[in-house]
Amino acid sequence: MKSYAEIRHFRDEYIQTVSTNHDKLNTFHDQLMKQSVQVAMEKVQSERGEPPAPFAFFLMGSAGRFEQSIWSDQDHGIVFVGDGDCQSYFLHLGEEIVSGLVQVGYELCEGNVMASNPVWCRSVDEWKLQLETWLEEDRWDSLRHFSTFFDSRVLVGESSLLSELKVESFNVLKEQPRLFHRLAENVGFIKKGIGLFGQLLPEQHGEHSGSIHLKQTVFFPFVNSLRLVALRERILEPSTLSRFKQLPDKYHQIKSYENDFQNLLDFRLRLRKDAQDYHEVHHIAKKALSKEERQELKLMMKKGYKLFSETKIMMENECSTWL
Amino acid sequence: MELALMDNLWVVVSTVLVFFMLGGFILLEAGSTRMKNAGHIAGKTIFTAGIGSLVFWAVGYGFIYGEGNAIIGLSNFFYGDFSYSGEGLSPATDFMFQMMFALVSLTIAFGGFAERAKLSAYVIFAILFSALIYPVVAHWIWGGGWLGEDGSQDFAGSTVVHLTGAMAALAATIVLKPRIGKYNKDGSSNEIAGHNQVFTALGVLVLWVGWFGFNAGSTFGVADAFLGFVALNTQLAAGAGAVAAMFIAWAVTGKADVPTTLNGALAGLVAITASCGFVEPWAAVVIGLVGGLMVFYSMKLFDKAKIDDPIFALSVHGTVGVWGTLSNGLFAVPELSTDIGWGQAGLFYGGGFTQLGVQILSVVASGIYAFVVAFIILKVMDKVMGGIRVTEEEEIIGLDLSEHGGYGYPENIPHPAENNKAGA
């Protein structure tokens, strides 16, 4: 059995060798996290015995979308078969995983989207009920939770448990198409990256002044658009690239942005491979960019804005044709 | 006689309006700074107004308007004249109106002290500024001094009141150094946000209203009803300043920043202060617009230069005060300058560079005098008083507690003395 320290050591030693290849890097992250979860499971098993029911540990956020850069935070949950009595076991497992992942180099999730939180660690039935409630409540934060949940994939355990939950939510959405409009509204704020004069808009104050917040200004419009379309087309895949690939032909307009997103992933890896921590990964100093890189970045921003506005219009049209 | 009495009435009303501007400053400064200093910032404005009034009565007025030479007046100390000839303003009416300008200038100077100066520093500087700095500049331009003789145009005090206050504020920010936490080790600056933008906005509105006394009152009378025209110019410039500042902040940073917008309105007001009685309304709009644009860039520039100006006094009153004064040299119309024997028309009205030159001279001379004297005074105070800045611990717990032993918002701030007992 490996220890968290050994996994951390392994990470530090090898991450630079994969840091510029998107697939290899994310496979490496998966490997690290899988090993950490195994260590956690064995530890909890030795303390409390075998898991009381079949379960799945799933990733969300950038890890769920297979879109991590070299540093990343934790976003994960657990779904288990069986009743609420099992919850305490899995919560304990969640806590162990959280502390293990921290030691391996994954920051805590600020929003507490982690398997140690009862909201994100539930039985299949409770999960279904929760998803339904989130959608039906139709509040800003409940819809935001739903979107977070939907960018998910199983890392350890039964994949079918998670698929079952997603299919259940597709059914709710089918009955209430107006929710597509609400889900689009829910992610409608995009941090401005380009100013009136076509200039990049870096942060004005603080430690990151002079830097562009990549995630908020460039990534989110792509990620959010493809999530919306995936919900509409019942695509289970969480990664933005595979969502692009699985889109039916009628979405050729949206598909045309696939290359831009691929470029964006490469761009980030190229520029952020030497980032020292999670916060650095998201910030690119404007000064450090060459003239061509600035142009490239602006182009990707513009494409993202365009993609999102086209997607939003499409969602609105769909809502109205269904009603 | 009746007209003269109406003049007196108008100037007394204006006096009250200008004094009410201190209420605007209280809201503006308290809102732009942190909660832990709110009571202090508000309270010090009241007691320094007290000090300023007494000093102005004792020597300030005499240094400005007393019989003297081109540099300083030297009579009418401890002023008290109840006589009235029946013509013009009564001496006391004039005195009161002038006093308010001195108080506003003093309050502007204290902008540079915000959130880190000792209470005792306020007391001493209030006395010295009101006696040695403001009256000298005011004498030079308004009291029959050498700049006024030169034809310098400063209708209501862009230079005399605003630039003088701002130069003292600049000296203070340099001597006091930036607040704890303002700059990071790598040189980047943090935004220390004010605790209440509603206060700040209300402060600006109160100042804006008071400014009608400041500018339109500076007509000293109601004859020709010129005061209405001055009020019109004032309103247009303030509006243009607010619009320009919000636009430029939005265009350059992507954010329609509220504090910048508010400072833009003030910038428009400061800019038109010198020129409100000399220019046409379209020029007032231009002067306000330029003021609004300048204040945005000036705020950025001071921030970059590591000059920590918590309430942007340097940009609003200093940078824009200079612009306001110079704008006369460009936009002054002959009917309101040459024809009435108050300087020359501006560059755009065939006056050539003469008036612009006079305006530049008055800005440079007044600015240098105010800065140098304030700097020397503050340096000496710093030595003699064992520092004019509070200790690090006092700054962290806030001046409400360290300087006054109470809180502006007692419910919201934990009592640090109970939680952080030394050695515990």
TrEMBL record, chain A:
<feature type="domain" description="DUF294">
    <location>
        <begin position="177"/>
        <end position="305"/>
    </location>
</feature>
<dbReference type="InterPro" id="IPR018821">
    <property type="entry name" value="DUF294_put_nucleoTrafse_sb-bd"/>
</dbReference>
<feature type="domain" description="Protein-PII uridylyltransferase N-terminal">
    <location>
        <begin position="22"/>
        <end position="138"/>
    </location>
</feature>
<dbReference type="GO" id="GO:0008773">
    <property type="term" value="F:[protein-PII] uridylyltransferase activity"/>
</dbReference>
<protein>
    <submittedName>
        <fullName>DUF294 nucleotidyltransferase-like domain-containing protein</fullName>
    </submittedName>
</protein>
<dbReference type="InterPro" id="IPR005105">
    <property type="entry name" value="GlnD_Uridyltrans_N"/>
</dbReference>
<dbReference type="Pfam" id="PF10335">
    <property type="entry name" value="DUF294_C"/>
</dbReference>
<dbReference type="Pfam" id="PF03445">
    <property type="entry name" value="DUF294"/>
</dbReference>
UniProtKB/TrEMBL annotation, chain B:
<dbReference type="InterPro" id="IPR029020">
    <property type="entry name" value="Ammonium/urea_transptr"/>
</dbReference>
<dbReference type="InterPro" id="IPR001905">
    <property type="entry name" value="Ammonium_transpt"/>
</dbReference>
<keyword id="KW-0813">Transport</keyword>
<comment type="similarity">
    <text>Belongs to the ammonia transporter channel (TC 1.A.11.2) family.</text>
</comment>
<feature type="transmembrane region" description="Helical">
    <location>
        <begin position="95"/>
        <end position="114"/>
    </location>
</feature>
<dbReference type="GO" id="GO:0008519">
    <property type="term" value="F:ammonium channel activity"/>
</dbReference>
<dbReference type="InterPro" id="IPR018047">
    <property type="entry name" value="Ammonium_transpt_CS"/>
</dbReference>
<feature type="transmembrane region" description="Helical">
    <location>
        <begin position="42"/>
        <end position="64"/>
    </location>
</feature>
<feature type="transmembrane region" description="Helical">
    <location>
        <begin position="353"/>
        <end position="378"/>
    </location>
</feature>
<dbReference type="Pfam" id="PF00909">
    <property type="entry name" value="Ammonium_transp"/>
</dbReference>
<protein>
    <recommendedName>
        <fullName>Ammonium transporter</fullName>
    </recommendedName>
</protein>
<feature type="domain" description="Ammonium transporter AmtB-like">
    <location>
        <begin position="9"/>
        <end position="409"/>
    </location>
</feature>
<feature type="transmembrane region" description="Helical">
    <location>
        <begin position="258"/>
        <end position="275"/>
    </location>
</feature>
<dbReference type="GO" id="GO:0097272">
    <property type="term" value="P:ammonium homeostasis"/>
</dbReference>
<feature type="transmembrane region" description="Helical">
    <location>
        <begin position="281"/>
        <end position="299"/>
    </location>
</feature>
<keyword id="KW-0472">Membrane</keyword>
<feature type="transmembrane region" description="Helical">
    <location>
        <begin position="311"/>
        <end position="333"/>
    </location>
</feature>
<feature type="transmembrane region" description="Helical">
    <location>
        <begin position="155"/>
        <end position="176"/>
    </location>
</feature>
<dbReference type="InterPro" id="IPR024041">
    <property type="entry name" value="NH4_transpt_AmtB-like_dom"/>
</dbReference>
<feature type="transmembrane region" description="Helical">
    <location>
        <begin position="12"/>
        <end position="30"/>
    </location>
</feature>
<keyword id="KW-0812">Transmembrane</keyword>
<dbReference type="InterPro" id="IPR002229">
    <property type="entry name" value="RhesusRHD"/>
</dbReference>
